[in-house]
Amino acid sequence: MPQAQPLVVPADGLTTRQRRNRALLMVHTGDGKGKSTAAFGMALRAWNQGWSVGVFQFVKSAKWRIGEQSALEALDGVHAQTGAGGPIEWHKMGSGWSWLRRDADTADDYAAEAAEGWAEIKRRLAAGAHRLYVLDEFTYPMKWGWVDVDDVVATLAGRAEGQHVVITGRAASPRLIEAADLVTEMTKVKHPMDAGQKGQRGIEW
Amino acid sequence: MPQAQPLVVPADGLTTRQRRNRALLMVHTGDGKGKSTAAFGMALRAWNQGWSVGVFQFVKSAKWRIGEQSALEALDGVHAQTGAGGPIEWHKMGSGWSWLRRDADTADDYAAEAAEGWAEIKRRLAAGAHRLYVLDEFTYPMKWGWVDVDDVVATLAGRAEGQHVVITGRAASPRLIEAADLVTEMTKVKHPMDAGQKGQRGIEW
Predict the structure, then answer these.
(1) pLDDT > 90? residue B172
(2) Is any Cβ of chain A less than 8 angstroms from the Cβ of B201?
(3) Is A63 on the interface with B (CB under 8 A)?
(4) Alpha-carbon distance B197 to A181, whole Å?
(5) C-alpha Rg value of chain A to the nearest Å
(6) Which residues contact B143 (CB under 8 A, 6 or more apart)?
(7) What CA–CA distance (Å, rounded) separates B120 from B118?
(8) To 10 degrees, what angle do helices B35-48 and B66-82 make?
(9) What's a Pfam family this protein contains (chains A, B) (predicted)?
């Protein structure tokens, strides 16, 4: 709720306003649903503020998240046509990163492709390209050693001002959690799959 | 992930397809962030499927969730203009329910207003008005006795086919959780407010 007050006021030499507007590193982890969905929901707020949003989807299935991608690209279209909201870019590893503009069929080395994605994000963070970065399912390339966890943490800690980053996925590295400002764990209490119901259109994708 | 398999196959006489497409009652609860944000993220998928989405926001602050509201209303506008996606209606208790069309200043009896909201949702569920209902912060009127928990659970259990419902808020009733198909608990691991940072534009609203 907006009226909530901080529990402590740190002696960091910042004004409340400066502290308030410090960009955040956020992590959505845990085994439950809603990690990525909540990150895409955040993109709605960012869009409404007119922010530039960059989504980087670190999964191999080209169909996965197609609903969120279509809707956020429609909002990007609204921005382009009317000036309302902000621009949203969606980059997907599964069909080859869009800035590389190569044949998707050549993108079969997942580790190399994940590393290429992270290298591009580093360039954008250095350039201050976006106000919100959604690094979807990025905990997995970190976990599998496709990107270096120390490099990720150091890069994010040293990023240029005013850039929010949200990272989603299970099993977030303890070093990432230590570096983050906001960490939420999504925990499964009950799932229809436990009762024999498979995922369905409009709900799971 | 889409390829996951159910743990059990129930002897309910339904085909896999019938079971798969059975509409869900979903609950996002817990003290962490992302409960509502994930529900609005789900609305993106529903929009992309061309579903009718009804959002019912059971909070009193007219400013709260303004980012999500603006973005989802923009998607409703895309649907109206181009036919892409589906229609999204956003109804907010804080400024008086939109179907009542009365002066917002008269809406100062929160309990009565919450009950009016639930009565309208019951009418829509009976009429099959939407394919996805987002009942945002609806656990609070349930907790505070403004709506009857048994009535809510019985109404949702008996609702017409093909209507998904997601309810968000802390402290969900055990009876609601029992009745739900999917329950996720959002748990706070770390929050910037603990370090003295207040909520900020684009992130909290």
Answers:
(1) yes
(2) yes
(3) yes
(4) 9
(5) 18
(6) B171, B173
(7) 5
(8) 0
(9) CobA_CobO_BtuR
Are A56 and A21 in contact by the 8 Å Cβ rule? The answer is no
Q: In 3D, which of A46, A28, A25, A45 has the Cα closest to residue A37?
A: A28
For B22-187, CATH gives 3.40.50.300
Judged by phi (left if over 0) then psi (alpha if -120 to 50, else beta), residue A50 lies in left
Strand partners, A101: none
Asked if A67's CB is within 8 angstroms of B49's CB, the reply is yes
The full set of domain ranges for chain A reads: 26-160
CA distance B130 to A78: 24
pLDDT of residue B102: 62
Instruction: Tell me the per-residue pLDDT of A138-160, one tens digit each, with 9 for 90 and over.
Output: 999 999 999 999 999 999 999 99
Label residue B205 by pLDDT band (50, 70, 90). confident
Taking the Cβ of residue A90 and every Cβ of chain B, the question of whether any pair is shorter than 8 Å is answered with no
- Rounded Cα–Cα distance for residues B18 and B21 (Å): 5
Please tell me the CATH superfamily of domain A26-160, with its number. Answer: P-loop containing nucleotide triphosphate hydrolases (3.40.50.300)
Two structure tokens written together for B127: 């009429």
What is the full DSSP assignment across B81-122? HH--S--EEEEEGGG--TTT---GGG---HHHHHHHHHHHHH
At residue A81, the 3 state secondary structure works out as helix
β-strand pairing of A88-92 with B25-29 = unpaired
Q: How far is CA A70 from each of CA B22, B128, B195, rounded to the nearest angstrom?
A: 24, 26, 37
CA–CA–CA angle B47, B58, A17 (5° rounding): 90
